[in-house]
UniProtKB/TrEMBL annotation, chain B:
PANTHER family: INNER MEMBRANE ABC TRANSPORTER PERMEASE PROTEIN YDCU-RELATED, INNER MEMBRANE ABC TRANSPORTER PERMEASE PROTEIN YDCU-RELATED-RELATED. Keywords: Cell membrane, Membrane, Transmembrane, Transmembrane helix, Transport. This is ABC transporter permease. The chain crosses the membrane at residues 12-34, 67-92, 99-121, 152-174, 195-220, 250-272. Pfam families: BPD_transp_1 (PF00528). It is a multi-pass membrane protein. It comes from the Bacteria. Residues 63-271 form the ABC transmembrane type-1 domain. InterPro entries: MetI-like, MetI-like_sf. Belongs to the binding-protein-dependent transport system permease family. CysTW subfamily. The keyword Transport applies. It is found in: Cell membrane.
Amino acid sequence: MTNSNKTALSRTSWSRRSLLALSGAALGSGAVSGFPTIWAQNIKDVTLRQIGTGVSGLNPIAEQVKKDLGFNLQLTVSDTDAVAQRAATQARSFDIADIEYFSIKKVYPTGAVQPIDTGRIKLMDKIVPIFTTGRLTPDGQMGQGTSPFSVGFVNSKGAKGFAGQRTELMTLLPTIYNADTLGIRPDLVGRPIARWKDLLDPAFKGRAAILNIPGIGIMDAAMVAESAGIVKYGDKGNMTRAEIDKTIAFLIDAKRSGQFRAFWKTFDESVNLMASGEVVIQSMWSPAVAAVRSRGIACTYQPLTEGYRAWGSGLGIMRHVSGLQLDAAYEYLNWYLSGWVGAFLNRQGYYSAVLETAQQNMSENEWGYWMEGKPATASIMSPDGREMEKAGAVRDGGSFTERMGKVVCWNSVMNEDRYMVQKWNEFIAA
Amino acid sequence: MSRYLPFLQAAPLFLILAVFLLVPMAMLVVVSFYDYDSFSLIPDFVLTNYRDVFSSWVTWQTYLKTVWFAALTWAITLGLGFWLAYFLAFVVRDPGWRMLLFVLTTVPFWTSNLIRMIAWIPFLGRNGILNNALIKAGAIDRPLEFLLFSDFAVILALVHLYTLFMVVPIFNTMMRIDRQLLEAARDAGAGFWQALWFIILPLCKPGIGIGSIFVVVLVMGDFATVRLMSGGQSASVGLMISNQIGLMQYPAAAANAVVLLAMVLLLVGAMLRMIDIRKEL
């Protein structure tokens, strides 16, 4: 983006339409890229192939891209591990990787993804500081594990390692994140749940579940083990072999004694386990809780004393993307932050990277309920138009700052990753 | 020229097999000796992958469990399949009815494997149809937990999936048995069990052999059924391989695949030694 465009932009209001019109005009003028006229003509032929999880690989987003930007977004949806794997090994089959920060720690060094020039991201400075400084508030805590900040920037185009500080080059454009905790069936647990260790309560024998994605499951397990005083960690997000051994040993014990009903791998599985009453307490993701509730079944995303385990994901541009397609990719990234998607994701209980623009696309009631922890003043509707909450409901865990402020660890890839995965497989096979 | 003609005629099949079977197989073996780190393969010749397979108690346990699943499923599908085929071949007299009933045995295959498995969940679950019915009938006072997410559920689903693979070849061989043989046996004073043991069973051996190969090979390689029906609590070799692929540990997965392949080939070889299935063809 040239200087003249920057000033032009800053004088304009930040609505998506005007922004797009403007960037379109800028591109058309030939000031930005080498494809001044081709852009206008061939825009409809551009297709961005994106691989991601079901969390944000949603058709309404692709439809909106077509409507707002004119090009095609082709979505491939898979589970967390498979997404990382395919992004790394089949990079040429995709243009955009919608992956988690803990996965990018493994994927980026393979060279599959090119760094993003923050100069071309218009709302860079509006991005929530968790991603740009590592802390939600200047005096907030970082959280253990693979935090988005720790793997969010690189020093140079060829760098294999991460900068650990803000630079001009980002690995992923943050899009969506959340604070995870345990989901419970308040009607079936029969007592208040306040700690992570409640997952191990013998009262829930055969009715507890944990997720079977090693990088995430191990963190939930660590929260439980630490809460129950079984293991003391130096850094949960980067365990030593001894710590891994102890964690897996306690998991195997719990499994052998019949504590767990199942281990789930996909969103739908967790919803079904909870909705059918097979499980009353388990690792869960926020929209899964919403999905259970929308079936008229009570389900609480229970805030716990020890705090939350958080995750974040973002969009990466594959190394091979260039020219017109690269321009489209940047256009897409900027659009992602411009508000519509943010509101769309916030309405499902996730958080968007730029809050301001999302707020402009949400009603006061929606913003109050999802982001400020206020009681809903009217029904809260899901993006597909079903009633999720009635007036008066309050979001579990409260406001954005209450929830994101209590993050104690992030989904992780550890130095002892290969060992951890091996041990995790032993737990599943035990 | 005419001497080479048969080779030429066989060439297309040979080429297809070479490209789509032999080459991938060779790749599998080669990769199983590679080294790897978290996201890349390192071409090398190391034995660590095989050492990991054979030195870990978990792998041994998983292999044993897989064999156990296969053996149990085989025994049950054989029992079920044999008597179903017997019923179709010898009890049902009318060819029209026989055809209709035979088609009915294929009903489970009218929907996808995955849907059939998922359908078990509301049926067998804690608050599922079966438990609710049993409670209402007063047979039990608390839901039976073992019905779902257990080895029982895995075996049940596998039997449901694969019984047909037993029924069809056994039914086929039974239909070829000359009925005069049975009449002769009866005339010679053989009872039902004697006729079954000395006439029908030996003549059915090729069918049983083919069915057994189907069932054993399918169960040994299964991963989806085991994962869904055990709720992720049980492991099979197939599931272990699929997990390793998911975590980018291709060489480890390849090593396991090679070991599993060798094991299945040995099993099939043993079965072929016992039963000459070519009689069937």
